[in-house]
Amino acid sequence: KRKGFIFDLDGVIVDTAKYHFLAWKNLAHSMGFDFTETQNEQLKGVSRVDSLNKILAWGNTTVSEDKFQALMTLKNDEYLGYIDKMNDSEILIDVPKVLDFLKQNNQGIALGSASKNARRILEKVKLISKFDAIVDGNDVSKAKPDPEVFLNAASAITCDPKDCVVFEDSVAGVQAANRANMISIGIGSRAVLHEADYVFNDFSEISEGFIKELINQ
Ligand code: B16
Ligand code: MG
């Protein structure tokens, strides 16, 4: 049977959180307050606009709409500088192996990310050709935990939501997958991602036998 496998990007395919962190931290410092790694954790899966809103609130700062836009551009320009230095060595463990196994088994493969830079990142790490469809932050109006991004991804690969499996590292993303009636697989810690149907630390823990079971379910 042909099922749909939908991958989040940051935290599942590559670790871009460290680059988001550097860029947001420099932005916060330029405005005179700090930004910690613990706070960065809370921005996983969160859109760029919502991230800046949270950071400004943590720094007890308010800005005009024009300044807000300028800060978004400043952060993204720095972030893109880091992205443009990425290469395929930054792909997380066993991701290409799983993508190739799914392809060999004629499964639908889609990306479902909040990032507006998703295509650029997939091109840099040379994985773009592995995806049948890419749905990212440019294609959705409602952020995770709203299921919109995953429902759009399912329709782009012509799969019924109940026949889709989502790989996610963020709590909001797992909730979005559950709300879309898809099977949710958390990539990360079980304590954090306890709402997922299954949780693995990374793809090296996911066997071909387990993926075959998902396909045949
Ligand atoms: P951008 P994902 C998310 O990616 C990141 O986890 C989140 O930290 C970031 O703010 C968001 O993308 C937007 O990214 O600024 O590139 O549009 O995990 O949904 O793949
Ligand atoms: Mg993520």
From TrEMBL:
One term of GO molecular function: beta-phosphoglucomutase activity
The protein's matches in Gene3D superfamilies, at most eight in alphabetical order, are given as: HAD superfamily/HAD-like, Putative phosphatase, domain 2
Q: GO terms for biological process? A: carbohydrate metabolic process
Cofactor details (free text): Binds 2 magnesium ions per subunit.
Q: Spell out the residues of the site Important for catalytic activity and assists the phosphoryl transfer reaction to Asp8 by balancing charge and orienting the reacting groups.
A: S113, K144
Q: Name one Pfam family in it.
A: HAD_2
Keywords assigned: Magnesium, Metal-binding
Q: So which cofactors does this thing need?
A: Mg(2+)
Under the heading CDD domains, the entry gives:
HAD_BPGM (cd02598)
Residues annotated as the enzyme's active site? D8 (nucleophile), D10 (proton donor/acceptor)
Q: Which NCBIfam families match?
A: bPGM, HAD-SF-IA-v3, PGMB-YQAB-SF
Q: Which family would the database say this protein is a member of?
A: Belongs to the HAD-like hydrolase superfamily. CbbY/CbbZ/Gph/YieH family.
**Protein name according to UniProt:** Beta-phosphoglucomutase
Naturally occurring in which organism (per UniProt): Pseudotamlana carrageenivorans
Identify the gene encoding this protein: pgmB
